[in-house]
Amino acid sequence: MTIHEVAAWVGCRTDHALRERGAAKPVALFIAEHRSALMNAACLLGGRDASAKVERLAERLREECRLTRSARAMLDQLLALLMLEHVHDPERPEAAYFVLIDPADPVVAEICLLTDGLRDAMAEADALMAEDRPAEPAEEPTAEAA
Protein backbone atom coordinates (compact mmCIF):
# COMPACT_ATOMS: atom_id res chain seq x y z
CA MET A 1 0.00 0.00 0.00
CA THR A 2 1.45 3.35 -1.01
CA ILE A 3 1.41 6.38 1.27
CA HIS A 4 -1.27 7.94 -0.95
CA GLU A 5 -3.47 4.83 -0.66
CA VAL A 6 -3.09 5.00 3.12
CA ALA A 7 -3.96 8.70 3.03
CA ALA A 8 -7.07 7.99 0.99
CA TRP A 9 -7.99 5.22 3.46
CA VAL A 10 -8.10 7.74 6.32
CA GLY A 11 -8.94 10.90 4.39
CA CYS A 12 -5.61 12.74 4.80
CA ARG A 13 -5.03 15.72 2.57
CA THR A 14 -1.80 17.53 3.51
CA ASP A 15 1.72 16.44 2.58
CA HIS A 16 2.77 16.66 6.24
CA ALA A 17 -0.14 14.44 7.27
CA LEU A 18 0.75 12.02 4.48
CA ARG A 19 4.33 11.69 5.75
CA GLU A 20 3.22 11.23 9.34
CA ARG A 21 0.57 8.70 8.34
CA GLY A 22 3.32 6.88 6.47
CA ALA A 23 5.20 6.55 9.74
CA ALA A 24 2.04 5.38 11.51
CA LYS A 25 1.18 2.91 8.75
CA PRO A 26 2.99 -0.16 10.18
CA VAL A 27 1.25 0.23 13.53
CA ALA A 28 -2.14 1.10 12.06
CA LEU A 29 -2.06 -1.92 9.75
CA PHE A 30 -0.90 -4.29 12.52
CA ILE A 31 -3.64 -3.11 14.87
CA ALA A 32 -6.27 -3.33 12.11
CA GLU A 33 -5.20 -6.85 11.12
CA HIS A 34 -5.01 -8.16 14.69
CA ARG A 35 -7.68 -6.05 16.37
CA SER A 36 -9.79 -8.93 17.68
CA ALA A 37 -6.81 -10.95 18.93
CA LEU A 38 -5.33 -7.86 20.62
CA MET A 39 -8.65 -7.09 22.30
CA ASN A 40 -8.91 -10.67 23.56
CA ALA A 41 -5.32 -10.66 24.82
CA ALA A 42 -5.86 -7.33 26.55
CA CYS A 43 -9.02 -8.64 28.18
CA LEU A 44 -7.19 -11.73 29.46
CA LEU A 45 -4.29 -9.68 30.82
CA GLY A 46 -6.05 -6.54 31.99
CA GLY A 47 -9.82 -7.00 31.92
CA ARG A 48 -12.57 -5.27 29.99
CA ASP A 49 -11.07 -1.82 30.51
CA ALA A 50 -7.86 -2.92 28.79
CA SER A 51 -9.83 -4.42 25.92
CA ALA A 52 -11.80 -1.19 25.54
CA LYS A 53 -8.51 0.75 25.36
CA VAL A 54 -7.42 -1.41 22.44
CA GLU A 55 -10.72 -0.62 20.72
CA ARG A 56 -10.18 3.13 21.28
CA LEU A 57 -6.61 2.85 20.03
CA ALA A 58 -7.71 1.04 16.88
CA GLU A 59 -10.32 3.70 16.16
CA ARG A 60 -7.87 6.53 16.84
CA LEU A 61 -5.29 5.03 14.47
CA ARG A 62 -7.95 4.52 11.81
CA GLU A 63 -9.31 8.07 12.09
CA GLU A 64 -6.17 10.16 12.63
CA CYS A 65 -3.68 10.94 9.92
CA ARG A 66 -0.64 10.63 12.16
CA LEU A 67 0.80 8.91 15.20
CA THR A 68 0.00 11.41 17.95
CA ARG A 69 1.61 11.50 21.38
CA SER A 70 -1.56 10.16 22.96
CA ALA A 71 -1.78 7.31 20.43
CA ARG A 72 1.89 6.54 21.08
CA ALA A 73 1.22 6.50 24.83
CA MET A 74 -1.67 4.08 24.25
CA LEU A 75 0.62 1.87 22.15
CA ASP A 76 3.25 1.90 24.88
CA GLN A 77 0.62 0.92 27.47
CA LEU A 78 -0.62 -1.92 25.27
CA LEU A 79 2.91 -3.19 24.73
CA ALA A 80 3.59 -3.02 28.48
CA LEU A 81 0.41 -5.04 29.09
CA LEU A 82 1.37 -7.68 26.53
CA MET A 83 4.92 -7.84 27.90
CA LEU A 84 3.56 -8.48 31.41
CA GLU A 85 5.46 -5.50 32.82
CA HIS A 86 3.11 -4.97 35.77
CA VAL A 87 2.04 -8.50 36.72
CA HIS A 88 4.31 -8.53 39.77
CA ASP A 89 2.72 -5.40 41.28
CA PRO A 90 -0.15 -6.53 43.56
CA GLU A 91 -1.61 -3.02 43.37
CA ARG A 92 -2.22 -3.37 39.64
CA PRO A 93 -5.19 -5.27 38.14
CA GLU A 94 -2.84 -7.11 35.78
CA ALA A 95 -1.52 -9.15 38.71
CA ALA A 96 -4.94 -10.63 39.42
CA TYR A 97 -5.61 -11.45 35.76
CA PHE A 98 -2.17 -12.96 35.24
CA VAL A 99 -2.55 -15.61 37.94
CA LEU A 100 -5.66 -16.93 36.17
CA ILE A 101 -3.76 -17.83 32.99
CA ASP A 102 -2.44 -21.38 32.63
CA PRO A 103 1.12 -21.14 31.21
CA ALA A 104 0.40 -24.23 29.07
CA ASP A 105 -2.64 -22.58 27.45
CA PRO A 106 -2.09 -22.01 23.70
CA VAL A 107 -3.21 -18.41 24.17
CA VAL A 108 0.17 -17.72 25.79
CA ALA A 109 1.97 -18.42 22.51
CA GLU A 110 -0.52 -16.21 20.66
CA ILE A 111 0.10 -13.36 23.11
CA CYS A 112 3.84 -13.75 22.56
CA LEU A 113 3.37 -13.52 18.78
CA LEU A 114 1.15 -10.45 19.15
CA THR A 115 3.75 -8.85 21.41
CA ASP A 116 6.54 -9.47 18.91
CA GLY A 117 4.42 -8.19 16.04
CA LEU A 118 3.41 -5.01 17.86
CA ARG A 119 6.99 -4.36 18.95
CA ASP A 120 8.19 -4.81 15.35
CA ALA A 121 5.46 -2.51 13.97
CA MET A 122 6.35 0.17 16.54
CA ALA A 123 10.06 -0.12 15.69
CA GLU A 124 9.25 0.22 11.98
CA ALA A 125 7.13 3.31 12.71
CA ASP A 126 9.97 4.81 14.76
CA ALA A 127 12.42 4.19 11.91
CA LEU A 128 10.08 5.84 9.39
CA MET A 129 9.61 8.84 11.68
CA ALA A 130 13.39 9.17 12.05
CA GLU A 131 13.77 9.14 8.25
CA ASP A 132 11.21 11.95 7.94
CA ARG A 133 12.90 14.22 10.47
CA PRO A 134 15.11 16.92 8.99
CA ALA A 135 18.80 16.33 9.61
CA GLU A 136 20.36 18.28 12.43
CA PRO A 137 22.76 20.94 11.11
CA ALA A 138 26.37 20.10 11.80
CA GLU A 139 27.96 22.23 14.47
CA GLU A 140 30.64 24.55 13.23
CA PRO A 141 34.01 24.12 14.86
CA THR A 142 34.76 26.62 17.57
CA ALA A 143 37.90 28.73 17.67
CA GLU A 144 39.18 26.53 20.51
CA ALA A 145 38.97 23.39 18.35
CA ALA A 146 40.99 24.98 15.53
Which terms summarize this structure?
146 residues, mainly alpha, 6 helices
Number of helices: 6
In total, the number of strands is 0
Q: Any idea what the radius of gyration is?
A: 19 Å
Output the helix-strand order: HHHHHH
Helix content: over 70%
> What is the percentage of strand-forming residues?
under 5%
Structural class: mainly alpha
- Which regions contain 5 or more consecutive residues with pLDDT less than 50? 12-20
Biggest sheet character: none
**Please, how many domains?**
1
Structure description:
The protein is mostly helical and 146 residues long. The chain has one domain (3-130). It contains 6 helices and no strands. The protein is elongated and about 65 Å long. The N and C termini lie far apart (50 Å). The model is unreliable at 12-20 (pLDDT under 50).
Describe the structure concisely.
With 146 residues, this protein is mostly helical.
Helix and strand topology:
Blueprint: H1 3-10, H2 15-33, H3 35-63, H4 69-82, H5 93-98, H6 106-132
Helix pairs in contact: 1-2, 2-3, 2-6, 3-4
